[in-house]
Amino acid sequence: MSRTAASHGTFADRHQAGRRLAALLAERSWSDPLVLGLARGGVPVAAVVAAELGAALDVAVARKIGAPGRPELGVGAVTASGPAYFDPGSLRKLGLTADELADTCAEERAEARRRVERYQRGRQPHYREGRDVIVVDDGLATGVTATAALRAVRADRPRRLVFAAPVCAPGSPEQLRGDADEVICVTEPEDFVAVGQWYRDFRQTTDDEVVDLLEATT
User: Fold this and answer.
1) What is the per-residue pLDDT across 156-168, written as a single tens digit (0 to 9) for each?
2) Which letter, b or e, does each residue of 112-146 get, where b requires 16 or more Cβ atoms within 10 Å of its Cβ?
3) Cβ pair 184, 158 in contact under 8 A
4) Which domains does the chain possess?
């Protein structure tokens, strides 16, 4: 299901990471490919991948649902539409229910909708049905936002649905089994702690940068 490079090292930035990821993806054959960058940090990576593959570029938005009092701890995620995704193991471990997170879920869904409107700027999204769709992020850690994004894309009936990232936590590709047809990683390092440790430049991607990258491809 996953592909891991034989060696790994730190990426200079998302652009370089995108080139290395694109090199793996270019070894495959694709049918009318569409590359979706997972906002925000996945979009610069996806832009490089789309350019290298000669594919269309668009954006996917999923928002992490944090645990009460610990917003950095993602227990689920939500997109602008469709059901929220919650990690059952995280809910059990913290003694939480989806109902207890309803307010946070609503807030994050509203933010997802705001971002979609900001990024699309009145432009119709690229169609997804019947084509190969590659969802790209700058890294895969817990997989909650990736899962929510993949499920939203799957509803649009792509021919093939692939998740790709430059760096993935050990075992994390298996968490996407059933939601992605394949998960492709440049590296899956055993000493993974956080995505940012694998980038020398991991500054936050802004909304304006996302908009600029999308407009540059239209």
Assistant:
1) 999 999 999 999 9
2) beebbeebeeeeeebebeebbbbbbbbbbbbbbbb
3) no
4) 2-62+126-215 (3.40.50.2020)
Q: Which residue type, as a one-letter code, is found at position 56?
A: A
Predicted confidence band of residue 77 (pLDDT cuts 50, 70, 90): very high
Task: Write the secondary structure of the chain as one string of H (helix), E (strand) and C (coil).
Answer: CEECCCCCCCECCHHHHHHHHHHHHCCCCCCCCEEEEECCCHHHHHHHHHHHHCCEEEEECEEEEEECCEEEEEEEEEECCCCCEECHHHHHHHCCCCHHHHHHHHHHHHHHHHHHHHHHCCCCCCCCCCCEEEEECCCECCCHHHHHHHHHHHCCCCCEEEEEEEEECCCHHHHCECCECEEEEEECCCCCCCHHHHECCCCCCCHHHHHHHHHCCC
Whether 97 and 70 have beta carbons less than 8 Å apart is answered as: no
